[in-house]
Amino acid sequence: MPLHPKKVAAGLKACAHGGINYAEMKALGIDPDNILDFSVSTNPFMPPPGIKEIISAAPITQYPDSQCTGLRQKLSEKLGVSPENILAGSGTTELIRLIAFVYLRQRDRVLIIEPGYGEHEVACRLAGARLIKHDTTEKESFKPHVEELTDQIHRQKPHAVFICNPNNPAGYYLTRKEIEKVLVASGDGLLVIDEAYIAFAVKSRGSLDLINQGNVIVLRSMTKDYGIPGLRLGYAVSNNKIIDSLRPALPPWNVNSIAQNAGVYVLGQEEYLLQSLQQTQAAKRFLTGELTRLGFKVLPSDANYFLVKVDNATEFRRFILAKGILVRDCSSFGLEEYIRVAPRTLPECRKLIRAINDIVYAGVDTVSTPEEKLI
Q1: How many Å apart are CA 303 and CA 25, to the nearest integer?
Q2: What is the pLDDT of residues 244-286, one digit of tens each?
């Protein structure tokens, strides 16, 4: 008898992500070390000095602390919540799948906003849940009308609602009042607020103080804030009952010792973080201004990244990659005409603008057919 996977896994498509695809680079004969990567939305001015010494000092001959005691204590001090309300993960994506595994049953209805972070959908499908999608429009820069969103929640009564705030890939930020409306509409359902990019949203308040006002889980990413994607580090904040239900389902030693040590260290570099966020905003302003000057439609964004409208995102990515630069093709979000760009250092941002300027002025010679245009 042949072996078959579970129905929920059969035909499941992996979620596309930004970052360097090493197999692709090898096939194209491109050295990954020479790529300027604008496709990932991490802090380009992090990690802080001294991180290499901290990493090298990690006790790798011992098992890591399964409870992440030191890291959770440091997060507790920074966030103003009890360590018992914090669960550390090997990136927020691990925690997203954990939440779906623990709380979603076959055929449970789950509402997600489109476009949005694809791992929310993957996790829910793996759990066998039914997806309800709240579609947004280009006219509104892909930001939902909260009244329409809450009306849909009232009507369809999903078991859970997943929200990226700021949204990925559009970058808009739902205000505290808007999030509260969604929470009220969710009733006894679970509300997962993915705040992976909250540090980059100027004047954002966050939702941590909502964890005791309903079935709320807030997710945050240290990968993004501190520029350590290779270490994989994130955390969930919720009430004691939810955290206590999630913790036993985590794999033991899920956060390695190097990541835990690095996490404790970077949390103590608050001034360096604030300076880096200001530099990131300055680089973002430069990029959005220059791209607008070149004639591109740049959508408003509260995060560090932003959407840029091009005629064909896949082709545009291919052209710019030939110049050693990587941008995020948003076709996987259903946005075939958009790329997502996140700032790097100003000298690197200038290289991106020069490369795009070359493409723009090359005109139809850069596209596969005479009818195609980039902008």
Answers
A1: 28
A2: 999 999 999 999 999 999 999 999 999 999 999 999 999 999 9
Q: Where are the alpha helices (DSSP H) in 157-303?
A: 176-186, 222-226, 240-246, 257-267, 270-293
DSSP annotation string for 250-265: SPTT-S-HHHHHHHHH
Q: How many CB atoms lie within 10 A of CB 40?
A: 20
Helix 313-321 × helix 346-362 angle, to 10°: 110
Express each pLDDT in 170-204 by its tens digit: 999 999 999 999 999 999 999 999 999 999 998 88
pLDDT on residue 363: 65
pLDDT of residue 374: 39
Domain ranges of the chain: 22-45+271-363, 63-269
Give the CATH number of domain 22-45+271-363; options: 2.40.128.270, 2.10.25.10, 1.10.3720.10, 3.90.1150.10: 3.90.1150.10
Taking CA atoms, 134 is separated from 22, 110, 113, 145, 297, in Å, by: 34, 11, 5, 10, 24
